[in-house]
Amino acid sequence: MGEGEADPPPAAEKKGAGEEEDDFGYRLFPDRNKKPQSFLVRSLFTFHNKCQLMLRLTLETNPYAQLLLEALKQSGCTVFNDRHFSCENCDGCVSGGFDAATSQIVLCQNNIRQQSHMNRVVTHELIHAFDHCRAHVDWFKNVKHLACSEIRAANLSGDCTLMNEIARFKFGLKGHHQTCVRDRAIRSILAVRKVSKETAEKAVDEVFDACFNDLEPFGRIPHSKADAKRAYRDFQNRDRYTANL
After folding, report:
1. Domains observed in the chain
2. CB neighbours of 205 closer than 8 A, spacing ≥ 6?
3. How far apart are CA 219 and CA 198, in angstroms?
4. What is the dihedral of CA 127, 137, 19, 199, to 10 degrees?
5. Residues forming beta bridges with residue 97, ordered by sequence position
6. How far is it, in rounded angstroms, from Cα 245 to Cα 242?
7. Looking at the annotation, which residues are catalytic?
8. What is the Cβ-side half-sphere exposure of residue 220, based on CA atoms within 13 angstroms?
9. DSSP 96
10. Distance between CA 119 and CA 42 in Å, rounded?
11. Would you tell me how many other CB atoms lie within 10 Å of the CB of residue 215?
12. Which of 71, 221, 236, 237 is the most buried (most CB within 10 A)?
């Protein structure tokens, strides 16, 4: 996940006595285990208010998010703002995550400060939600499944656009986009799995070509908002002719 976003799959399974329990990344999202606060209490926190406002703007105006929301709906997984998104405080190293146990996207209100960042995090996590909806993803036991979704999220969310890479002081020409996608996928796996770097790298490398070239539902790599708008328009018109037959 880009910018340190980590994606916890479903709730951690309990292991036998004496065996170290893997929390599957939930340690990065401490509010997941707390009793929900009342709306009145949450509304008093500026971070929470700002997070909700930025989220609403993303869902209403960002073409990446709009395309994914429509694709999820067509796949039978309609997303509702108050049900499927949660603004919470997280560990300082992450910006968001997808909790497959609740089909809920976590947005780290203490770490997302700019609208452009919110746009990217929401898009990234919606790609995981789309993968969860359309495929039988084994988030727990199959690191290749996790690697594939992380590759797709890094590739299609705008995490690796030229401007974002320049902002990170990373430069490159031939193959730089692929390098960025690979590196960010590996980093995301390491954030939520207690596996070695070698294991994460192997999983990413083994599925990279197939998952990098899986461009659903965009049909292209959206390198900019203009690309995303064109992809959204194409998606809306995808069934125009066959629907009239």
Report:
1. 24-136 (3.30.2010), 138-217 (no CATH)
2. 182
3. 31
4. -70
5. 106
6. 5
7. 125
8. 15
9. E
10. 22
11. 14
12. 71
Work out the number of other CB atoms within 10 angstroms of the CB of residue 22: 16
Cα dihedral 104/106/107/109 (nearest 10): 130
Read out DSSP for 45-91? Answer: -HHHHHHHHHHHHHHHH-HHHHHHHHHHHHTT----HHHHEEEE---
- Is-contact 5 188, C-beta < 8 A? yes
Token digits for 168?
């990170």
- At 139-157, the pLDDT tens digits run 988 999 999 999 999 999 9
Q: Write down the pTM of the prediction.
A: 0.80
Residue ranges in the chain modelled with pLDDT below 70? 1-24, 26-45, 162, 164-174, 239-245
